[in-house]
Amino acid sequence: MDSEQVLSVGEVAKRSGVAVSTIHFYERKGLIEGWRSGGNQRRYPRKILRRIAIIRIAQRAGIPLATIAEHLAKLPNRNVSAAQWHDLSSEWRDELNSRIVSLTQLRDQLEGCIGCGCLSLSDCPLRNPEDKLAEEGAGPQLLS
């Protein structure tokens, strides 16, 4: 590989804006790949910068590392194309939209809890969803 296309771990850290320890962590998790030089130093292809950028964007959006790894494993070990990025971001967008709906519902249910003040409602959508614990009596059965 052309020496201009190969980066040391320090160069990757500087150019990607992440710590060296983060690069090692990503490698241990199988998110990126590198190799050891003849002098036993870590080396990475320049294209790793785009993969790290994708990982950072996904993490910022709250995508779990396991999900990121699962999606990156489907991609060939080369630069991610615009079409591949579109596919990745579409899947993650759907996941984020689902989370937004869930969090909105949680927020709206939380207001009822705040009104109660003591979580002693016999029908609590947060601590007693669908009133599954009603047969055990009124109040916060899970908090007892």
Top CATH class:
Mainly Alpha
Low-pLDDT ranges: none
Give the C-alpha Rg: 23 Å
Structural class determined from secondary elements: mainly alpha
Tell me the helix content.
Answer: 40-55%
Describe the largest sheet. Answer: 3 strands, antiparallel
Identify the strand order in the major beta sheet: 1-3-2
Broad shape: elongated
Mean of pLDDT? 81
- CATH T-level fold name: Multidrug-efflux Transporter Regulator, Chain: A, Domain 2
Number of helices: 5
Distance between the termini: 64 Å
Order of helices and strands: EHHEEHHH
- CATH architecture title: Orthogonal Bundle
Beta-strand percent range: 5-15%
Number of domains: 1
In total, the number of strands is 3
If you had to describe this structure to a student in words, what would you say it looks like?
- This protein has a three-stranded antiparallel beta sheet with strand order 1-3-2.
- The model has no long low-confidence stretch (mean pLDDT 81).
- Helix 1 (9-16) packs across helix 2.
- The protein starts with 5 loop residues before the first strand and ends in a 28-residue tail after the last helix.
- The chain is 51% helix and 6% strand.
- It is mainly alpha-helical and 144 residues long.
- The protein has helices at 9-16, 20-28, 48-60, 65-73, 82-116; strands at 6-8, 35-36, 42-45.
- The chain has one domain (3-117): Multidrug-efflux Transporter Regulator, Chain: A, Domain 2 (Orthogonal Bundle), CATH 1.10.1660.10.
